[in-house]
Design a protein that fits this description.
There is one protein chain. This protein is α/β, with parallel strands linked by helices and 256 residues long. It is built from eleven helices and six strands. It has helices at residues 29-32, 41-49, 80-88, 92-101, 107-118, 134-137, 154-168, 196-208, 217-221, 225-236, 242-254, and strands spanning 22-27, 52-55, 126-130, 173-177, 184-185, 191-192. The strands form two sheets. A four-stranded parallel beta sheet has the order 2-1-3-4. It is globular and about 60 Å long.
Length: 256
């Protein structure tokens, strides 16, 4: 998250005026909530910028895929990677097979998939991607160290999707947004922990090994991620190697 502030992009650097731009949004709840209403995030972007905004988000979808290959009628179709294959390599067959297998698919979902198949992405200027913490809460893996584009891990699925977009439409600017570790905001703007699982796992390691820690320890380790947190814990005096700590305490909870 610390790098999120280092975005070398200004209004002056935009390829055209905002009202002349076309933006495509992909994600789940952040873009899908209140679809069709004025307070929907994609609609707010359209209102504030004057741009044409297409919303290809689906509620209850995931960034990663449950299976390595897509089976007919499987909800993995709505994951970012498989949606990306539709408009980058013309993978229309997965949409057609899904709809044939599920004839009762809601009309609005059919309309969104049809638009995805038919929109000319050569005309799209920006793709905005925003998913919540659903992948983490479903215990899906972050990364496969041996395969950085493994679509069953949400980091890998994101990388694979971005690679497809950049290879096919290099002119499109890609903006990736995400609530850090699915944290939420109180009404006064305070960032609060909505990830008790992560907190309890990481604090238990210190407690079980009798390691004293500061009250703000979660603020320190949250941006680090698992590998760097393990390294930090070794420095604090946890009597385990970084690798052993990651495998024993973390991996069973996040890999599939």
């Amino acid at each position: 998250e610390p790098l999120d502030n280092l975005v070398p992009y200004t209004y002056e650097a935009a390829p055209k005026d905002p009202e002349d731009m076309i933006i495509a949004c992909f994600g789940n709840a952040p873009f899908a909530d209140d679809m069709g209403k004025a307070n929907n995030l994609a609609n707010i972007i359209a209102d504030k910028t004057g741009a044409t905004v297409y919303n290809f988000s689906f509620a209850d979808s995931y960034l990663s895929c449950k299976e390595p290959e897509l089976e007919t009628g499987h909800n993995d179709l709505f994951s970012l990677y498989w949606l990306t294959t539709v408009f980058t390599i013309g993978n229309d067959v997965i949409v057609n097979d899904y709809l044939a297998d599920k004839p009762n698919t809601p009309v609005e979902v059919k309309a969104t998939l049809s638009l995805l198949q038919n929109l000319d992405f050569n005309m799209v200027d920006v793709i905005a991607i925003m998913y919540d913490g659903s992948d983490y809460l479903d215990c899906r893996g972050m990364y496969n160290r041996d395969d950085s584009t493994n679509i069953r891990h949400f980091g890998g699925a994101l990388e694979a999707s971005i690679n497809l977009i950049q290879d096919t439409f290099p002119h499109i600017q890609i903006i990736v947004m995400s609530p850090p570790y699915a944290y939420g905001l109180e009404e006064d703007g305070t960032l609060v922990d909505s990830m008790p699982t992560y907190a309890s796992v990481m604090l238990r390691i210190l407690d079980e090994n009798g390691i004293a820690y500061e009250p703000d320890i979660l603020k320190i380790i949250t941006p680090l991620g698992y590998p760097d947190t393990a390294r930090y814990y070794v420095e604090l005096g946890v009597p385990m190697t970084q690798e052993a700590m990651t495998i024993r305490e973390v991996s069973p909870k996040i890999t599939t």
